[in-house]
Amino acid sequence: MKVKFWGVRGSHPTPISPDQVRSKxxxxxxxxxxxNVIDNNSRQKFIASLPDWLYGTIGGNTPCIEIxxxxxETIIIDCGSGMRSCGKTHLSSNDKTFHIFxxxxxxDHIQGLPFFDPAYNLSxxxxxxxxxSNMSEYLKQQMKSPFFPVEMDxxxxxxxxxxxxxxxxxxxxxxxxxxxxxxxxxxGGSYSYAFSENGHKFIYASDVELQQKDFERTPxxxxxxxxxxxxxLDAQYTAEEALEKENWGHSxxxxxIDFAIVWNIKKLYLFHHEPAxxxxxxxxxLEVAKWYADYASGGVLRVHLAIEDxxxxx
Length: 314
Description:
The protein is of the alpha/beta class and 314 residues long. It has 9 helices and 14 strands.
């Protein structure tokens, strides 16, 4: 399966600011030496040598992840503001089915749905999956007057299904794709999803405040978490902030690493980034996270940042 990150920020969209752009430009200019601008090759080499926080940006859209299966089926997880960009890549798709999974219904996870262009294509089919029984009511509410100019019932494709998931029960939604949901700790509730295809497992765990019970080797936890190829996990806070924001429903990178090691995860992607953190701060956290992961796992666990527009193959 192929996984693409369309939105990786938490809480609210966070476009890069003019001050942040100026700061990046100043930092680049300070690094330039005469030998870096002799010709095009030297310029390209210089650009490639820049720190990651200067070379591009993490992105500012709220959560939206796209999975493309080996049989070219499209699965979308959460409908944050990144869903708008995701939809633009499917404008030419006709008779297309979109399998859309919702972790929960806080606004940063549904606000992109009204801007998902394929939803207005009458030949599209939208299949929404959730463990919340009143998902249709929640989705429609944000598109009612005075919040939005058109409503789902009158403007979206008529081919819409709402499929209720029983937590911890595996479902085969398309050929060779098995999905299981699991309730996690978050105000109002939130569900993580484990997707398995041809022996490979990807876990999406957004808006999660890890608890001691999540580390316990119960049959349910073992079936859901163990031996995943990739874990995309909420790591919004530093340890200091987590102490101040207990019960806010988010985790820290150090707890995320401990969790990934316990469950023999191969690759951990830190996700749902704090909107107050700029690129330099986030890449600084990544460096500390890598050091801690190497120390704690003996170099086995690989840690990455979830970055908008990046793709991974599992």
